[in-house]
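Intended use. Records like the one below are meant for learning the mapping from a protein sequence to its folded structure. Do not use them to infer anything beyond what is encoded.
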Amino acid sequence: MYNYMNSSESLEYLQQKKILIAGGTGFIGSHLVSKLVLLKSHIIVVSRHRPKIYSKNVKYITADLTSTECVNKLSREKFDIVVNLTGESNRINTEKVPTVNTFAVTNILLTLIKKNLLIKFVHLGSRLEYGRAKYLPVNEKHPTLPKDVYSIEKLLSSSLINRFCTYFNIPFTIIRASNTYGPHNKFKFNNHNLINYYIDAAVKKQKLTVFGSGRQKRDFIFIDDLISAIVLVLISNKSNGQIYNVGYGKPISFYSFVKLIADEANVKVKLRKWPKEYLAIETGDYYADISKIMNSLGWQPAVSFREGIKMSLRQL
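Structure written out for the chain above:
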């Protein structure tokens, strides 16, 4: 794992600040909360969902981030940093009914402007904001051409944050993350994370289904590596005003990745014809150029695909 003590900035900074984590009860949020608890940060979590497992020394607020009532609730809280992990991430559902991603971001921004006390805003975006890759690896200068409603909403959220924070002089960082996987609490497919779905299915000794040939290249990142990148962004002033790609930075075919899961769990993989609704939003080959965050903050991924899968299966 990444040794934060090698960084020029001190982790003591995080012990002196109150951090609001919007959407802190989800897969990524729960891991970030656990890490910040270990780092002795003061944490407020706001989410529509109550956590199944409560972390000590964390204040939980149950609220709908799309409502004006939520703005009023957050305005009464004292915090210095916001990490935004909000949003519905089911791409198929968003084609039928637009989700709440952008509304939640807008309300958080309104809260920050109203309070005028923010030290930093960190937003978790998505590699899907780039759409179908025009070249590989994809760097931060790549055109943003999202293919579906979910991806459009993620890009709109990033654009709103960039514009509002620049205008109101609020330091911000946007992270465009590759597909993230790892140990998680929900032992069922919640339509939010495809790789964790495969991991759950493998643990249950079910066959793993891959659409098409599975030859498309992908970039997967283990949850601990993503969390280490977020923490470095939180403690570094160098990240202010920046957009970073965060991924493993090396490609693997989708089929090969699923086969690694299947082999570790001793289950089979079967190929199936693409359903129309999934094929319509398929983005083809993607892997990230992560040189910007590596050169700027000294971050690099530490967990290989095989080791990440082993740890995920072992901890379920």
